[in-house]
Amino acid sequence: MRLVALMFAALLSWSAAAAIDTYKFNSVEQEQQYRELTEQLRCPKCQNNSIADSNAIIAADMRTKVYELMMQGQSKPQIIDYMVARYGNFVTYEPPVTPATLILWLGPLLFVLIGGAVVILRTRSRGAAADDEFSVQEQQRLAALLKETDRKKP
């Protein structure tokens, strides 16, 4: 029974060891570039994790592709362009300004400007309404109400 448990534990630990990526780099700079690239690219499945932090299968495939492209001698911008062409602008944490994404970049600014304009206009209109004098009819009614309340007082 003990042997079976030991074999089962060894089997489970083997699958955990197989999930670790091990790559051989030609230089420390190349390894640093790999780490920077995998931190800059977003996992399409996890959405808020980089491919370096994600355990998703697609992230592992993307890490492997980054390594392969680096070994082929491609530069950092070329690798990022390849990933964007394959997975879309979503894989970068800083998507470019395009007509499609312009509303995402300008939306918050427009919201603040429109909100500020509404506040200013409402404040001005309330100030103007407070400065208006009573019409003759309103003054007469007010005088009558004041006389009526004076009569009711003991």
TrEMBL record:
InterPro entries: C-type_cytochrome_biogenesis (IPR051263), CcmH/CycL/Ccl2/NrfF_N (IPR005616), CcmH/CycL/NrfF/Ccl2_sf (IPR038297). The lineage of its organism: Bacteria, Pseudomonadati, Pseudomonadota, Gammaproteobacteria, Enterobacterales. This is Cytochrome c-type biogenesis protein. One of its GO terms (biological process) is cytochrome complex assembly. One of its GO terms (cellular component) is plasma membrane. It comes from Serratia ficaria. Possible subunit of a heme lyase. Pfam families: CcmH (PF03918). Belongs to the CcmH/CycL/Ccl2/NrfF family.
